[in-house]
Amino acid sequence: MMPLTMAKAGETVTIRKVTGRDEVRQHLAELGFVVDSDITVVNQISGNLIVQVKDSRVALDQGMANRIMV
């Protein structure tokens, strides 16, 4: 397992674990970041990510992306 920030642009990965407080995990789940779902890294700019989750693109800062283990 590694944090989402380690994934390269264009890579599709599967979420294995979401860490953090309950409110943070709930917020990420509402955005579509749930265990066993596939996400694609669209772009990475200085640690911040744009990812494709289901049919939408979501921007994550580095701190939030580090909470998502793939």
Report what the structure shows:
This protein has 70 residues and is of the alpha+beta class. It has a single domain, classed as Roll (SH3 type barrels). Helix content is 20%, strand content 37%. It contains 2 helices and 6 strands; from the N terminus they run E-E-H-E-E-E-H-E. The strands form 2 sheets. It has a 4-stranded antiparallel sheet. Strand 3 and strand 4 (48-53) form a beta hairpin. The relative contact order is 0.33.
Structure summarized in a few sentences:
With 70 residues, the protein is α+β, with helices and mostly antiparallel strands. It has helices spanning 22-31, 62-65; strands at residues 12-14, 17-18, 38-45, 48-53, 56-60, 68-69.
Number of folding domains?
A: 1
Structural class: alpha+beta
The percentage of residues in β strands lies in 35-45%
Number of helices: 2
List the helices and strands and how they pair.
Blueprint: E1 12-14, E2 17-18, H1 22-31, E3 38-45, E4 48-53, E5 56-60, H2 62-65, E6 68-69
Antiparallel strand pairs: 1-3, 2-6, 3-4, 4-5
Defining traits:
single chain; 70 residues; alpha+beta; SH3 type barrels; four-stranded antiparallel β-sheet; two-stranded antiparallel ribbon; 2 helices; 20% helix; globular
